[in-house]
């Protein structure tokens, strides 16, 4: 017997006769399901997680980045296409498909209104050290509220949703999707549809695949999001001849609290005080400019930086001057009245940390500290230099956060066009296969990250994939 995550039997008839099959249960998948219903298509959505932890990585998010031409009720000033694209270009080092990036940017202008149409609510723009009030719209209640709202809308519109439905393999007939093999309970079943949207995430929770890409250092990585993103659908697409895009070692990797759990620590484990102090490795030495740029444009490089340090660990060190200037982590920092005491608490070499701080303090130049702009507080004569927000670390109490690499999502994926259609290795487009979210984000994010852009890509391509799949299914109604 096939049983749902609620303990009720599933009627096998619920698995047949649908126009569009959506594989995945996060933001991109839900946007696809809703958009396919807008086209009048019948939709089956398969979520591999139980209902109580549905939503994938999207349940841990807070906002999406969106273009806008004037102030809105949730965004200040304006954020136009060229500035948005320049932000993407800078963080990716130019490793992006410009046409697809600009497509997402332009389409993002309509996202908040579309989302509101399904009941999503936003909170007023944020101030403070996140520097996001002008660029990012924050969901009221966070990502969990967002996905719950979408699930309610999908149920209301008649989308069939089955939880703990693990899609194991996709079966193609040439360039055409034929059916998926899906594990439900103790049975494996065939699920067919006229079109499929694959929005099942990357492979960041597959520890063996991570080690294959990164080597043994990955054993010290923590996974910020869901444990269910095992990459099975990505592997199956590539096995079926999909054209791959992206580097398996690239992804959204940030510095998170080393005390976070292996999986599902979420956004609350991120440590946001890096730009307000210094970061040292296990040897007590600094290794990168903590004030290179605004935090939302640089926080995503710190996961990779930590991964290159001995034992893949670092430590953020601040003093009393940083208090109240950043969003705190869920874990309290280590606190001490002297640097020597803090070094002992963090198991750092006392002499090395004191020498590092003394050298840094001596290099700090006079300036006017202003964390809301790229200020003139910098160092001179120390390596690496700190180019903004440099203040002497000399006012007790002193604070320290241990840092590990936190993998959010991976960038290896399959290549698509601006209609979310998947390319095959031979350059042809698959007939009825559409992709959205992490599984295609590597087309736009070759490296680096800018805050909220993953949700933008998922929302735009989810809507596009659902619209295109729904339209394809309706135009092939007699097939």
UniProtKB/TrEMBL annotation:
UniProt-listed InterPro entries: CobZ, FAD-dep_OxRdtase_2_FAD-bd, FAD-oxidoreductase_2, FAD/NAD-bd_sf, Succ_DH/fumarate_Rdtase_cat_sf
PANTHER family in the record: FAD-DEPENDENT OXIDOREDUCTASE 2 FAD BINDING DOMAIN-CONTAINING PROTEIN, FUMARATE REDUCTASE
Keyword field: FAD, Flavoprotein, Oxidoreductase
Sequence ranges assigned to domain FAD-dependent oxidoreductase 2 FAD-binding in this UniProt record: 19-442
Protein name: FAD-dependent tricarballylate dehydrogenase TcuA
Record Gene3D superfamilies: FAD/NAD(P)-binding domain, Succinate dehydrogenase/fumarate reductase flavoprotein, catalytic domain
Listed cofactors: FAD
Pfam families the record matches: FAD_binding_2
The UniProt record lists the keyword RNA-binding: no
Stretches of the chain forming a coiled coil according to its record: none
Highest taxon listed in the record's lineage: Bacteria
